[in-house]
Records
---
Amino acid sequence: MLLPNDEMTIFETILARRSVRRYKSRKVDRSMISTLLDAAVRAPTAIHQEPWAFVIIQDTQLLQSLSNQAKPLFVAETQKLALEHTNHSFDIFTQSDFNIFYNAKTLILICGETAAPFYAADCWLASENLMLAACGMGLGTCVIGSALPFLNMPEAKARLNIPEKFSVVAPIIVGYPDDEITAKLRKKPVILANIETHRS
Ligand SMILES: Cc1cc2nc3c(=O)[nH]c(=O)nc-3n(C[C@H](O)[C@H](O)[C@H](O)COP(=O)(O)O)c2cc1C
C-alpha cells in the first residue's frame, strides 16, 4: 500500500484540505486510488454494515458525456428546490463548455447499499476519510453533488454498472491540483450550550 506522506499531522491535513477545481493533466495512478479506497473503508460505520461500494472512472470521454447529461438535470433540480433564490449563481451550468467535473481525470463514486439504515452517513464519513487521505498525498478533491440527480437515474446506474440496490451518495473528483490553494475562512463554531457538571 502506498502511504500518504507523513509530513503533515492529521490536524494540519484537516486545515489544508480545500475543494480543488483546477487540475493538472497528469492522471492519478491505480495504486494511489487503491490507497484512497483503503482510507475510505476505515470510516466509522453504523452497526458494522460497511454499506459502501465504489466506481472509479478515468475515461475522459465518459466523464464529458456524464457532465453533459448531468448539467440540465441539475438546473431543473435547482428550480425545483428553489435554489436559484439563494445567493449562489448556477448560470455556469447552462454554459456548453463548463465541465461539471472541472476536467478532472478521475471521478470516484461512493455508493451506498440503501438497505443499510445509515448508508448515507457511512458513505459521507468514508468520503471525508478519502479526501483527507488525498490531501495528505498531495492530491486535490472536490465533491460534485450537482452530478447526483443524473448519476442516480436508472440509465446512468446501468451504464456505470451500479446495481439497483445501491445509490450514488458522493461523487468525488480527484487529481493533481493546478491551483495555489488558499486558506478559506470558516465561521467560528456556534456553541449552543456549554454544560458542565455543577460542583456544590
Ligand atoms: C454535499 C456537497 C456537494 C457539493 N457539490 C459541489 C458541486 O457540485 N460543485 C462544486 O464545485 N463544489 C461542490 N461542493 C464543494 C463545496 O462547494 C465546498 O466544500 C465549499 O465551498 C467549501 O469549500 P472547501 O471544501 O474548499 O472548504 C460540494 C460539497 C458538498 C459537501
---
Amino acid sequence: MRGKDVTLDSVSITYPDGFTAVQPTDLHVEAGEFFSILGPSGCGKTTILRAVSGFIAPSTGRVLIGGDDMVGKGPNQRPTALIFQNLALFPLMPVWENVAFGLEARGLSKRARRARAQELLDLVALGDQGDKRPGELSGGQRQRVAIARALAVEPAVLLLDEPLSALDLKLRQHMRAELRAIQRQTGVTFIYITHDQGEALTMSDRVAVMNQGVIEQVGTADEVYSAPTTAFAASFVGEANRFDGTVQGVSDGLAEIATARGVFRGRNPAGLAAGDGAMLFVRPEAMALGAGENTLSARLMRRDLEGAFVNLFFDFGGQELAVHVTNTGEATWPDGDADVSFGTANAVILPSGPLARTGRELAAQ
Ligand SMILES: Nc1ncnc2c1ncn2[C@@H]1O[C@H](COP(=O)(O)OP(=O)(O)OP(=O)(O)O)[C@@H](O)[C@H]1O
Ligand SMILES: [Mg+2]
C-alpha cells in the first residue's frame, strides 16, 4: 500500500440551506503523512472529510488526490476509505469476513479473500481472532477490525472521523499507539479527525487547528503547542494563562503588553505594533514560583497533587492563574501572597481574537 497526497485548492463548502460550513481553504497533506484536523464540535471537520471522500462536492475549489482532480468522482471512484465514529460491523459474520467484505465485489475467490483478511488481521494484531463474531471482541478489537476492513480495499488515503470516541479512556490511549503503528507500517496517508487535542498531539506528523469553518494553523504538534499563531489555537490546544491588554512597545521579535495588572513581555510572532489589542498566553508549566523576567504577585488558593506534578491555582486580582510545578517531594508552598513568574521566551503575544470555550463554559450550556 502506498499513500497519496491530498490537496484542497480554495475549497469552500456551503450546504443547501445556505450555511457555509467551510470557508475557502488551501491545504496540502503529504503522501504517507499522519495528518489530524483538530477543532471543536461543529467547526466543519466532518464536512471537509465528506468533500475529500466524495460524499459531497465542494461549492468552490478543487480536491486533488495524488495530483488527480476528483471533480465528478464519487466515493467508489476515489482511492479513499472512510472510518466513521460509529463503525458498523456485521454481527453475524465472522471477523475475517467482515474484513474481507469489500473484496467480494472485486471478484476475489473465497480463498484469496481469506488469505488477504488474515494478512490484515495480523497487521492489526488480531491474527488469531478471525473466526470469532464481532460481539465476542472488545471495543478496541472491534475498532481494529474496522481499520482492517477499511485497509482491505487498499486505499491510498484513509479518512478517520473520530474513530476512537466511543471507547473508554484507557482503550483510547492504547489505540493511539496502535493506529500510529498501523499508519507507519502501511504508509497510507491518514487524515484523522478529532476534537481531542491529546489524540491529535500524540499521533500526528502535523495538525490543523480548525475553528468555525477556518483552518487557523497547520504545524507539527510541537509548533502548534509551543508556537500558536492565533488566540483560538492558543486557548484550544493545551491550557494557557491569558492576559488581555494593549501592545505598548515592540523590539527584536518581542512585544510589551500593558494589562490592567502590569506590563509583561513576550514573543511577538504576529508582528503586532504599538496600540494593537493583544492577548498574552503562557502555559502553566512555563510558570515558576519566585521572581523572574515577568513577575507578578498572586495568592495561592488551591493545590492539586497530580503525582509527578502539582497544579497550583493562584488568585491574581480576581483572575485564576494556573502554575504547574514538578513535585520534588519538598512540600514548601507559598502562604498568602507570593511571587510567580514566567520567561519572556515562554510567553506569546497574539492579536486579540475569539477564544476556545472552556470546559466550564461548555458544561454550563
Ligand atoms: N447537511 C447539512 N446542512 C446544513 N448544515 C450542516 C449540514 N451538515 C452539517 N452542517 C453544519 O455545518 C457545520 C459543520 O458541521 P460538521 O459536521 O462538519 O462539524 P464537525 O466539526 O464534524 O463537528 P463534530 O465534532 O460535532 O462532529 C455545523 O454547524 C453543522 O450544523
Ligand atoms: Mg464531525
